Amino acid sequence: MKKVLVVLLALLMCASVFAQGSAESSKKYTVGICQLVQHPALDAATQGFKDALIKGLGDSVVIDEQNASGEATNCSTIVNGFVAKNVDLILANATAPLQAAASATSKIPVLGTSITDYASALEIDGWTGTVGTNVSGTSDLAPLDKQAEMVKELFPTAKKVGLLYCSAEANSVYQVEVMEKELAKLGYETARFSFTDTNDVASVAQKAADSVDVIYIPTDNTAASNTEAIANVVIPSKTPVVAGEEGICSGCGVATLSISYYDIGYATGEMAVSILKDGADVSKMPVQYAPQVTKKYNAAICEALGIAAPAGYVAI
């Protein structure tokens, strides 16, 4: 009887372990994605995130992907919907979705991507590299000092650089403030030209083109969604644009110090897998940055403006 009981207990233990393993393997995760607006950079980041998520979790993950069409109020509506559904994790693609998600929940893990500066976006003093709450993610910031040096390398005789950006985007304001200092170190005079939404992009771009030798545009979502309007101003006026990211450069710029948005999105997806599958603590995850940057140029616009890209630049 003792032997029979031992065997039965062993079988029960095996059955319990098997049941637990089956439950874990069949667990479904729901991930909500809020992307601010559709344009190539943010699209690439979202795709990278989804690819990493599916690779790590397979068919056990359900993705609810929504686009805010460039409206901050839509971000809040989308994120509040995710919170009401009690999703397992939220991806905030761009600053407005991140701010909305950080305000909407302190419990659900939130990962940001395509965020330039988390300290500015979330109003954090004494930045240490880790948010320390339920928020972490990846940054799309290419070194701003190197971008200023690129302006000098391409346009050494220019006197005045115009900074064209959306004043409603906190990360754009941050970049402009840093670039003003970096360009001043190199002897440039700078002037700010800010728009508040898509309606005044063209008119503000025209003011900049009429006033400066070179225009710099940071990683700005409103600008990225309106590159055609900017190009229609700067190309006829022969005013070169140095851009903070490749998507803007493709539309209206001559050169950029480029990162891969797909890569930072993929890295964010790997962070999500670590949180959902391995139980990693999001509050202890440092914000990650792109592993490499590349000097790139827009061959068509350079040709139209009569600009020859220096050695070491790669055509977009």
TrEMBL record:
Protein name (database record): ABC transporter substrate-binding protein
CDD domains given in the database record: PBP1_ABC_unchar_transporter
Keywords noted in UniProt: Signal
Domain of life: Bacteria
Signal peptide span: 1-19
Chain segments annotated as transmembrane: none
